[in-house]
Amino acid sequence: MVRLTVELIAKSSNHLKRRPSLSQYLKRLTHLNFSDKNIEDIDDLSMCRNLTVLYLYDNQITHMSNLNSASNLTHLYMQNNNITQIENLSNLQKLSKLYLGGNSITVVDGLEELSQLTELHLENQKLLPGEKLLLDPRTLVALSESLCVLNVSNNNIDGIRALTMLRELRHVSAADNKLHDLEELEGVCSLWPQLRRMDLSGNPVCQKPKYRDRLITVCSRLEVLDGKDISELSRQFLLNWKASKEARKKLKDEQVVTRKDISSTFIRRVPD
Question: For the segment 212-235, what is each residue's pLDDT rounded down to a tens digit?
Fold first, then answer.
């Protein structure tokens, strides 16, 4: 079993040829890349007190152990491992970007203390048949004022109403899921005022009539939908069309009410 230890870090860096002591080197270390090294476990990293960026993707890690000691981490890359649970991150209160795609996570929780997290990447979880990725409401509440980028593509998700509270979202990737309710999408997206980019390609909802037009009209700042740019001219045309349609409907409803009133008055005036 390959274990990430300070000894392994020292061996890989040949620090003794350039630095007076291991402790000094580890203290100054800010970036550490052990991607694709068959790492299965993480040892105590408390000596790396200034570590800010840690690359551990494409390994065989099953547990997120001994990460709480790396309290200065801002970027953590652990995609494509064998992780089933998000854990031991409560002390990483400076963490801004977390990459966990390609693992085996079914429930997203344990992020309640990460008030500075701006990006969360959870795409392509290795789920069993019938499973779908679930996001704990407590985690969503905790991230509601910070999270700007969310990637939950290819996770068998069939609804996103729970994501409504993430009001700061700018980029959303939820491609290749099972989203089918266009009205739900309109309602949720209308509550994301900062949304600039969204990818829903590969979902059943994309086949609904006027899918693209309807989302463009409710997302006032959306610039790219499913990889295609949205011109301001197109948006204004759709908004004008929608306003004209609503005005015609309002006029028609008023005419119906007026005819009913006239008919009712006529009936009351007809003598017995």
Answer: 999 998 888 999 999 999 888 777
- Its pTM stands at 0.85
- In three-state secondary structure terms, 160 is coil
Looking at the structure, tell me whether residues 192 and 247 fall in a common domain: no
pLDDT band at 26 (very low <50, low <70, confident <90, very high): confident
Residues 184 and 53 in one domain: yes
Q: Token pair for residue 160?
A: 């996103």
Q: What is the pLDDT of residues 143-176, one digit of tens each?
A: 999 999 999 999 999 999 999 999 999 999 999 9
Query: Which residues, at least 6 apart from 161, have a Cβ–Cβ distance to it below 8 Å?
Result: 184, 187, 188
Q: Are residues 164 and 272 in the same domain?
A: no
Check: CB of residue 139 under 8 Å from CB of residue 108. Answer: yes
CA dihedral 221, 223, 225, 230 (to 10 degrees): 110
Pair 265, 205 in one domain? no
Residues 179, 259: one domain? no
Domain around 67: 2-241
Q: Contact 84/105 with Cβ under 8 angstroms?
A: yes
Longest CA span, the chain: 113
CA distances to 41, 72, 75, 116, 258 from 54, rounded to whole Å, are: 14, 11, 6, 17, 69
Q: Is 62 exposed, middle or buried (0-12, 13-18, 19+ CB in 10 A)?
A: middle
Sheet holding 171-173, edge to edge: 31-33, 53-55, 75-77, 97-99, 119-121, 149-151, 171-173, 197-199, 224-225, 228-229
Question: For residue 189, which of 176, 204, 207, 205 has the smallest C-alpha distance?
Answer: 205
Residue 15 has pLDDT above 60, yes or no: no
